[in-house]
């Protein structure tokens, strides 16, 4: 009996699909973390990139990633598989990014109020600045946080529109429309840029 049980727990996590790893993790956690670790390994880099582009800095992105990984660890036991693991993971990530962004915005408002700097106060609603970064990051500051998240989930996480709509609790057509408008705004800013 013990030998059969031991053989059943021997597997190569890299050979399993996300769904198979989720099933393993639901049975094994918290005694064995092999399946969970493989799931996190698969998505860690993209998860960090999504957070960094949404929040605008690596420090906050790292904090949010840690929080997401903990929520996944404790949430896998109750994950019902109604959506793909990837969609569920980015849904948690999206919610954690929003929480962190609001926290930072509240801090900024407090600092603005304390400094009584009218220029800073007037710009508090702007997206977080992405210091000295090129590529997509440089242009994401030109769109509002919801549109930015749609673009990040599409380009960085490579999710389908329906998955993005599910994560953001929006209709499919509304998601596509916001995506198109955000792209149009980026194109307009890019073409208006003196560097091009």
UniProtKB/TrEMBL annotation:
Keywords of the record: DNA-binding, Sigma factor, Transcription, Transcription regulation
SUPFAM superfamilies reported in the protein's UniProt record: Sigma2 domain of RNA polymerase sigma factors (SSF88946), Sigma3 and sigma4 domains of RNA polymerase sigma factors (SSF88659)
MF terms in GO: DNA binding; sigma factor activity
Domain of life: Bacteria
Database matches in Pfam families: Sigma70_r2 (PF04542), Sigma70_r4 (PF04545)
UniProt entry tagged with the keyword Electron transport: no
All residue ranges annotated as the RNA polymerase sigma-70 region domain in the record: 39-106, 139-188
InterPro entries, sorted: RNA_pol_sigma-70-like, RNA_pol_sigma-70_dom, RNA_pol_sigma70_r2, RNA_pol_sigma70_r4, RNA_pol_sigma_r2, RNA_pol_sigma_r3/r4-like, WH-like_DNA-bd_sf
GO biological process: DNA-templated transcription initiation
Annotated NCBIfam families: PRK09640.1 (NF007222), sigma70-ECF (TIGR02937)
PANTHER family according to UniProt: ECF RNA POLYMERASE SIGMA-E FACTOR, RNA POLYMERASE ECF-TYPE SIGMA FACTO
Family: Belongs to the sigma-70 factor family. ECF subfamily.
Entry protein name: RNA polymerase sigma factor SigX
């Amino acid at each position: 009996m013990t030998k059969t049980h031991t053989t059943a727990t021997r597997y190569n996590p890299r050979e399993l699909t996300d769904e198979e790893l989720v099933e393993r993790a639901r049975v094994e956690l918290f005694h064995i973390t092999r399946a969970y670790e493989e799931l996190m390994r698969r998505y860690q880099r993209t998860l960090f990139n999504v957070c960094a582009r949404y929040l605008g800095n690596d420090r906050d992105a790292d904090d949010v990633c840690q929080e997401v990984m903990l929520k996944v660890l404790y949430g896998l036991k109750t994950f019902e598989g109604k959506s793909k693991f990837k969609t569920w993971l980015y849904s948690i990530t999206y919610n954690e990014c929003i929480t962190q962004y609001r926290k930072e915005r509240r801090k900024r408002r407090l600092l603005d109020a304390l400094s009584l700097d009218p220029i800073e106060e007037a710009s508090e609603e702007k997206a977080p600045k992405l210091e000295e970064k090129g590529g997509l990051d440089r242009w994401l500051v030109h769109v509002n946080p919801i549109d930015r998240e749609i673009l990040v989930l599409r380009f960085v996480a490579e999710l389908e529109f329906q998955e993005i709509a599910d994560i953001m609790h929006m209709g499919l057509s509304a998601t596509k429309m916001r995506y198109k408008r955000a792209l149009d705004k980026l194109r307009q800013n890019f073409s208006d840029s003196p560097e091009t």
